[in-house]
């Protein structure tokens, strides 16, 4: 019957998907080389952290560290 053929086709597609699990193509897998933040934002963060620490050292050395 028609409904049995449709059911068999659905089962076949389902089983085909089950056997394909874990077989992801190499291009789809995300590479771990990319940074979560951009290099510009990272440079700005380093500039702020190092700049503020240098400013604090200079301020403490001149006697205004209170």
List keywords for this structure.
66 residues; mainly alpha; 64% helix; 0% strand; rod-shaped
Major beta sheet summary? none
As a percent range, the share of helical residues equals 55-70%
Overall outline: rod-shaped
Strand content: under 5%
Distance linking N and C termini: 89 Å
The chain-level structural class is: mainly alpha
Detail the poorly predicted runs: none
DSSP summary: helix tally: 2
Transmembrane segments: 40-58
Membrane topology: Single-pass membrane protein
Keywords: Endoplasmic reticulum, Membrane, Transmembrane, Transmembrane helix
Family: Belongs to the RAMP4 family.
How would you characterize this protein structure?
- The protein is an all-alpha fold.
- The chain has helices spanning 2-20, 39-61.
- The chain is rod-shaped, with a radius of gyration of 30 Å.
- The model has no long low-confidence stretch (mean pLDDT 81).
Short description:
By secondary structure, this protein is an all-alpha fold.
């Amino acid at each position: 019957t028609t409904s049995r053929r449709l059911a068999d086709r659905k089962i076949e597609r389902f089983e085909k998907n089950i056997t394909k699990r874990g077989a992801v193509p190499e291009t789809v897998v995300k590479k771990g080389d990319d940074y979560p933040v951009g290099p510009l934002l990272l440079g700005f963060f380093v500039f702020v952290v190092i700049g503020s620490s240098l400013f604090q050292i200079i301020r403490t050395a001149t006697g205004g560290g209170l």
